[in-house]
Amino acid sequence: MPPTRLTFIAVATSFTAVSSLQSLIIPVLSVIGADLGADAIGQTWMLTAWLISAAVATPLLGRAGDLVGRRRMYLLALGAVAVGSVLAAFAPNLTVMLVARVLQGLGGAVFPLGFGLVRDAFTPQRLAGAIGGLSAIMAVGSGLGTVIAGPVAAAIGWRGLFALPLALAIASLAIGAAGLARSAARSTGRINVLAAVLLSGWLVALLLPLSSGNQWGWGSPLVIGLFATSAALMAAWLSVELRSRSPLVDMRVMRRPAVWTTNTTALLTGAAMFGVWAYLPRLAETPASSGYGLGIDASAAGLMMLPMLVTMASVGFVAGPLSRVLPFSAQLTIGAFLSAAASLSIALLHGDILLLAGSAAVLGLGTGLVTSSTPNLIVRSVPADQVGIATGMNANIRTIGGAVGTTVFAAAIGGSVGAAGLPAESGYVAAFVIGAVLAVVGGLVPFLGRSRPDRRGARAIRVVESPLEEFAEAA
């Protein structure tokens, strides 16, 4: 089998394994909590532990891959996923489950490492299609957890959910160990330890209150103190990076218009996307006695989301060829607008399961375009030896956006809970309208950039800043 095909299969398999872990336990969180004796805060920590671990590991292992070789770090991250999945499946209590989730979160590094491996293996002519396909697989994997969790848990129990990521991680390890070539382009220098500590610190201090603020209280001294700590550590981190001769994250790369506009769009669309993913099934599962809910079970809600996976996968695999007539920056904006339309449709038309399934399909189209175009814009706008850290930071920014989005949705919906213990319809409407606004703003951000040539990097391609300008040039 050609090395490029082996690389694609290995990376695609690992992307599916890791991305599914992000959402796999959400629909059955209360069931897992009941079995392990975890209260609402403990259940939240099952999500938070993965989130923080992934947020820290993604840029650090991505940068380590740039320095010492992506293949080595990639296999290490996959090994952590496999061990974490075994621990999670047999976890006797909450403590072991949290350790398992931290190990699984280390697998977040496979995204920047995988994109770097693909850039090393593919020619420029085939690179866009490969990255588009992998991005679609990554997005489908995230949605897959929401779709299959209910039916699988009902059939064989929640512990059986971890068999899928375990099998995929082992398969990717075997293929990767046998078929992945060592990275050709490596960065020089070392990992800046102080920058790494500060980056990890402000990420943890930011994500903790975002994930647990609803339980702790947004005005509590702990939440306010963590946000203040995060801001202070971020300022110190930026100062260290700007002064360092060997930065962990090269701010000259991050400041490029193609990079910062794409990252900003990832933040905003990530907030909208994860908010809709988390709360669309809950809206449909709300009892019919509420006057607006459909009263369906978790399995039916999963099937309702299935059209999203189909459209997401379909558009992701055609994004590369489509870029010959519709540039990635234009795809990014169109995808954000489609996601906004889907979120607004859910806010206004949620009285029928077919309407919700149709909105989910449109959301899949928008998400597929956004997730396929984002890494393509990043990869072709940075030097080859910066791919790991640049795509790692992009993945992190989307993760932060997801935490922000689910928090905003939770606040809007949770704040409308009435005496019967059910959210008011107005709470869901407000949440999905906010999601639409976030996606629209995200779609407008790429218009802020301007086009200029980029000659840095061995295989760097033209830096793309303006969707209108790039579209005109392609036409």
Automatic annotation (TrEMBL):
The keyword Ribosomal protein is assigned to this record: no
InterPro entries hit by this protein: MFS, MFS_dom, MFS_trans_sf, Tet-R_TetA/multi-R_MdtG-like
Keywords: Membrane, Transmembrane, Transmembrane helix
Matches recorded under Gene3D superfamilies: MFS general substrate transporter like domains (1.20.1250.20), Multidrug resistance protein D (1.20.1720.10)
PANTHER family membership: COMD (PTHR23501:SF197), MAJOR FACILITATOR SUPERFAMILY (PTHR23501)
Record Pfam families: MFS_1
Signal peptide: none
Domain Major facilitator superfamily (MFS) profile: 6-454
Membrane topology type: Multi-pass membrane protein
Protein's UniProt name: MFS transporter
Keyword Transcription among UniProt keywords: no
Compartments reported by the entry: Cell membrane
Residues annotated as transmembrane: 40-61, 73-92, 98-118, 130-156, 162-181, 193-212, 218-238, 258-280, 300-320, 332-349, 355-379, 400-422, 428-449
